[in-house]
Amino acid sequence: MKDKEIEKLIKAEVVRQSEGLEMIPSENHTSTDVLKALGCRLTDKYSEGYPGMRYYGGCEVVDAVENLARDRAKKLFGTTHANVQPYSGSPANQAVYFALLDPGDTVMGMDLYFGGHMTHGLKVNFSGKWFNSVLYQTGKDGYLDYEAMAKMAVKEKPKMIIAGATVYPRIFDWEKLKAIADSVGAWFLADVSHIAGLIVAGEHPSPVGLADVVMTTTHKTLRGPRGAILLCNGKESTPLKKVERQRENLPTLIDRAIIPGLQGGPHNHQTAAIAVALNEAAQPAFKTYGQQVVKNAKTLANELTNRGYNLVTGGTDNHLMLIDLSSKGVLGAEAEKALGKAGITVNKNTVPFDPRPPFSPSGIRLGTPALTTRGMKEAEMVQVAGWIDQAITHSADDKILNKLSIEIKAFCKQYPLPA
Ligand SMILES: *Cc1c(COP(=O)(O)O)cnc(C)c1O
Asked: Which residues are catalytic?
């Protein structure tokens, strides 16, 4: 690379990722094939529109790329339609609002401080500013409270209900959520950004066939490049023709919301990399991967519980866990910092009904997707739990944290990033 300043930083990031344990549950390590697709000439090409109907010439090749990505997405998730153009998860959610709602309409989403995403109606987000958002919380036990949600829906009459989370360690009951949406005639958006890889692996039920629209990011458990996919069923899309807001027209409504509604040219290198990741996710090895992600999370959760940690809902069904550290007398931010010094990357997080403010919450969130990609299994999770416990117990002792970081660095050499 001629740009030595950036080259040095890229190398430094690779070293950081290699020598430490990435335990932020929304992160993963992509394959070199995905990286190759991301760093290729497809990025040079403009192609506003959809395959076969572009506003630019020279789109024969990118048409084939996008068709492949769409076909693979439809096959993997079992829908008749897929839009692979969203730049990332947040714009993909924005497109669903644009497709199905008008400004000022009521939407019902999960409160950010209970595990929802900003785009599910947070008041400082577009979804809470341009729409009338009403936010549901979990019960005291950290589980979704479907009865309270059903009551809220009847009272608020939302036009759309969003389910899905950035921090929810349990299974979503899609049937119950669909029944709640149906009871008030609301659209139902399932945001499976975090769990898409687990759905593909058969480790979490799929909302396809129940939710009107399914949105997933492609870079979390699905292990692809940054990006997102919108999935739905209905009549074949006619992006050049305006249609009514009816269920059968969802493919057209979604496509028209992405362009001309919200975005310009698709990122063709990103589309190619998504196609590569979807093909990888369709292989038998990915099923094994998804199963191991969950086994690892359950092992880690048990080990931490045995060491006296208080896990929200008492454990996990998926790839992540939320730890309430208040009984340990350590703040989330302190734990995040101490673990960081030891070489374990996590993030501080609010816990349900957190008495502390969001910028200094009581908990931390951690997960197993990235470590599992590196080949770690249950035995390694036992070891990792021990390190986490030591780092949190000695969060003010830099000497111990430094010793841990040396141990962890040596351990990580056995588990290289995908080659
Ligand atoms: C990550 C995530 C998003 C947004 O994805 P970005 O690509 O970061 O914009 C949306 N919803 C949920 C539930 C997520 O976890």
From this structure: 46, 48, 191, 217, 220, 226
DSSP helix/strand/coil, 231: strand
The answer, yes or no, to whether any atom of ligand 1 lies below 6 A from the CB of 90, is yes
* pTM, to two decimals: 0.97
CATH fold of the domain at 284-412? Aspartate Aminotransferase, domain 1 (3.90.1150)
Choose one of 93, 96, 114, 117 to mutate for the ligand 1 pocket test, by most ligand atoms within 8 angstroms of C-beta: 117
Over residues 379-414, the pLDDT tens digits come to: 999 999 999 999 999 999 999 999 999 999 999 999
The residue type of 1 is: M
For 33-281, CATH number out of 3.30.200.20, 3.90.1030.10, 3.40.50.720, 3.40.640.10 equals: 3.40.640.10
The verdict on the CB of residue 191 being under 6 Å from ligand 1 is yes
- H or E segment at 134? strand 132-136
